[in-house]
Design goal:
single chain, 180 residues, alpha/beta, 3-stranded parallel beta sheet, 4 helices, 22% helix, globular
Length: 180
């Protein structure tokens, strides 16, 4: 489109053939550095030294860890990134959307309720921490690997478990689009 001014690409850092104006590295503070091992043994797509190419670094979920742990992560990043552009991004729930009828409920909708969390994302623990912050009572967690597409059979099992235990099902926006 002629009106396109900004294009943001997720996971494009290692694509050297792309022309780019800005490289942003996100460090998930709850799972930093992918076990310090490259794929397939760990989660890193390249050595930590690659952080040095970044134009800025964003520490995500930094509110979910202790100050000493955050300081250690910053020290490790500082060994590679010498720039001054450092930011913090923390998640919060704004609303819940019912995926069957698209109705919206406020962030306190699940306060004090018993829930079953189902997720197939890279960091399900971060999702669970968000839900626990409501405060709701997480009774059951059903997790799959990142990018998993939920089958009708799996969803039937989740619904059955929730019905038997009187739980409400909560999932992520990323998972919701993969539910048939």
């Amino acid at each position: 489109s002629d009106n396109l001014q900004v294009l943001i690409l997720d996971d494009g850092y290692q694509s050297y053939e792309l022309k780019r104006d800005l490289d942003i590295i996100l460090i998930d503070c709850t799972k930093p550095f992918g076990g310090r091992r490259l794929l397939p043994a760990g989660l890193l797509r390249e050595p930590l030294s690659g952080i040095g190419r970044a134009d800025c670094v964003v520490f995500t979920r930094s509110d979910m860890i202790s100050s000493p742990k955050l300081q250690k992560i910053k020290e490790i990043v500082g060994n590679y990134y010498k720039g001054a552009k450092v930011f913090h991004a923390n998640e919060e729930i704004r609303e819940f959307r019912n995926i069957s009828n698209n109705s919206v409920a406020g962030k306190d909708y699940f306060k004090g309720r018993k829930v079953l969390c189902m997720s197939a994302i890279g960091n399900s623990a971060g999702f669970h921490r968000l839900i626990k912050g409501i405060p709701s009572i997480i009774i059951k967690k059903i997790e799959k690997k990142d990018h998993h597409v939920w089958t009708r059979s799996e969803l039937g099992s989740v619904i059955k478990i929730a019905a038997e235990k009187g739980l409400e099902i909560v999932t992520t926006e990323k998972d919701a689009v993969r539910i048939p």
